[in-house]
Write a structure and sequence with these properties.
By secondary structure, this protein is an alpha+beta fold. It has six helices and four strands, in the order H-H-H-H-H-E-E-E-H-E. The radius of gyration is 16 Å and the shape is globular.
Length: 154
């Protein structure tokens, strides 16, 4: 971390309430573990493991836009202040995990596109069909796989 980022983080850290600091710290840990865990056990198994330890209570929370933004903000802080920022899949899994911790049931989406002889993939999170950590028109740029079976068994 560059010195300026460390100083800014220290200033911000002292202002945030304790519950936010705890959530950000936990998200930072998961963000660092996720790339390694995905390589060792695979994406679906890692999501199953995370889901096992963070079950959604029945019924899940019907989240407001403000609540979604607040949890997304926690994830942004974790990403911005971590040693690694992770790729879109790691960040989206991290946000998915944070949403579950707040009893908000979301869907991880993975889409692909082929343009100018280049194949690209992207991951994002949706709540009730609306992207949370991507532009609203992400579906126009990436063709999402049909509903992924990543949440099966959770």
């Amino acid at each position: 971390m560059p010195l300026r980022r460390i100083v800014n983080f220290k200033k911000q850290w002292s202002v945030w309430p304790k519950f936010q600091r705890k959530s950000i710290l936990q998200a930072m840990v998961i963000l660092h573990i996720t790339p390694v865990a995905m390589r060792i056990v695979g994406v679906q198994h890692w999501i199953t493991i995370l889901g096992f330890f963070t079950p959604i209570n029945n019924p899940p929370l019907l989240a407001t836009a403000t609540e979604l933004e607040q949890v997304h903000w926690l994830n942004i802080q974790a990403v911005n202040h971590s040693l690694i920022r992770g790729k879109c899949l790691s960040r989206s899994i991290n946000l998915w995990w944070l949403m579950r911790r707040h009893n908000i049931d979301t869907e991880l989406r993975i889409g692909v596109r082929h343009k100018s002889k280049q194949f690209k993939a992207h991951a994002w999170l949706e709540y009730q069909g609306q992207p949370i950590n991507a532009d609203q028109n992400i579906g126009q740029h990436f063709r999402a796989f049909d509903k992924l079976s990543l949440n099966k068994g959770l």
